[in-house]
Every structure is written in structure tokens, then in C-alpha cells.
Amino acid sequence: MIVQDAPNDALSDVLRLVDAEAIASIALTAGGDWAVRFPESDFVTFCAVRRGSCWLVKDDGTEPLWLVEGDCFAAIRGEFGLASSREVRVAATQMFRPDDQARQYGSGNDVYLIGGNVRFDTANGGILTDVLPPMLLISGEAAEAIHWLLDQLDKEWRRAEPGARIACNDLLRLMFIHALRTYIAELPPSSGNWLAALSDPHVGKAFEAIHADPVRNWTLTDLASLASQSRSTFATHFKATVGVSPIHYVSRWKVRLAAARLRRGRQPISSVAASLGFLSDSAFSATFRRIMGITPTEYRALHLLPNADPLGHRGDLERSRQSPDASAAG
């Protein structure tokens, strides 16, 4: 029997680094005249209309959006509200709390929504959320994969069988990943957003190689060869797509990996530097400070987790490969 791990990819690495975790799966039923406001939070709120329709009122001054059955959205940042009509005042309240799994608003059950929150590591979440728009919108016509997941989420929610809570949260996490895929597929090629590299036929090959072997001291020649482009063409193409030069991205990635290890483990800083291919502690410290604004020692003092592993081998950040250990990063 041949046992083969699922292939690794850059987005999976980033999601591991930011520690994406679904923390609540919630159902909302509403009818008549109703409105509810979702205050800004540190979470990404995912919501799907399963029955009926309602208005999505954003806080950026843009026109409200009419959501119908099958539509989904992920609120990355900023306040927003849901309402039965544009005339109903959206009152302040708190929604989708982990300790309160079902809500009823107004009278009746004209509208049924389901969703929840996705939480990220506070020190690293910006790697992903900073390159996303305030709101990801997925129309019902474009969300076939999400619809299947929503059907399963609905079943788990309604049946409440053993393990349903974990199943709901895992399904919600999958829905968020599909929402990301939808957004990535719509990104223009030269957006200056590293997510665009994931689907670029040239930059993508180099991008995945960097993620697959972050310990290697990549050169522009190495990466251009993988992309099947000349050095100058590749460098220009990479910067237009990702927003930074190839070598800067390599350095930034290594530093992100190092920061995660410093935050989640207590191994010596020199060991962290060596594990990521830095030739000296001084080179590591200088690169880290240039990118993060502080030294590795200062970063650890500010961000070390209370339950940090003395050996620094926590969770999914350490992956065994044929090459030296590679951690997830973005």
C-alpha cells in the first residue's frame, strides 16, 4: 500500500501560519421588520442566506446590497448590518458569539441565515487579512462548492449529533477557504497582491518553490529558471504580481517563519536562524530587524505565547520534508 500526503501549497502554508480557526457556527432566523448590526471585531464573519432575502448594509458609505437565497459573504473588517428593508434602523448589538449559538429577530421565520466567525493568530493574521477587501461577496450562482458545504453545515446544525459542534466549525473553515479561492480567481494578474501569484502560470511556480523549501537561499537565477523566464522579465513580472521583488519576498518569508517559531517556541534564537538557512546570527538579526522593525529578542519578549513549546515544535508549523524542516508562513 502506498501512503501519500496531500500536496502542500502556499495558501495552506499561510493558513497554518495565521492559525485560521472557526470559533462559532451560528444560525439566525428573522421575520417581519428586523435589523441587526455586527460591530467591528478581530474575527472574519462568514454568513450565508439559506432562506429568504435581506439587505446587507456596509459601513463604508456604499449602497446596501440585496442578498437572496444562496448568496454568501465574508466580512473581513469594518462594521456591517443586516436588515429586512433599507428603512429599518440597524441597532447596535453583538452577533455570532461563541456562547450563543442561535438568534431570533423580528417575528416569523421569513429569513434563515447560517455562518460564524473565523479567528486568526493576532500576531500574524494581517498577512492574510491585509490583502483582502473589507468584504468578500460570493453570489449564489458562483458558490456551488460552498452550497454543498452549507448543506452539510445545515444538517449538522439541525441534527445536533455527537461531534456536531466540531463538524460545524470545520465546515465553516472550509467555506472560508472556498471564499478565498473565489476571490483569488477574480484577482487581476498585476494586482500587487501576493494572492495573485497563486494562479499565475510563471510566478506561481517560483512562489510555490519558495514555500516548499524556505530554508534554501534562493537566487534570482534559480527562481527565474523555475518560472521559465529571463531574470529581468521574471523580476519585473514577480514584483508587478506580488508587490515586492523576488528576493525581498524570500527574505520576508524566512522572517515570518522565524517570527512564528520565536512566538510559539523557546528554542535559542541561533537555532531558529540556522533552521531557516541564515549563515550567521548577525545576518539573521539584521534581516529580521529590517523587515519586522525590531530584533528577534525584542519580538520574542513582546509576542511569546504563554504555552510556548520549549523545543519549538508546536502544531502544524513544523512539517517533516526530505529537506530541512519547513514551517508555514506568509
From TrEMBL:
Keyword Transcription regulation appears in the UniProt entry: yes
A Pfam family hit: HTH_18
Domain HTH araC/xylS-type positions: 204-302
The keyword Transcription is annotated on this UniProt entry: yes
PROSITE patterns xref list: HTH_ARAC_FAMILY_1, HTH_ARAC_FAMILY_2
Xref: SMART domains: HTH_ARAC
Alphabetically ordered keywords of this record: DNA-binding, Transcription, Transcription regulation
GO molecular function, one term: DNA-binding transcription factor activity
Protein name per Swiss-Prot or TrEMBL: HTH araC/xylS-type domain-containing protein
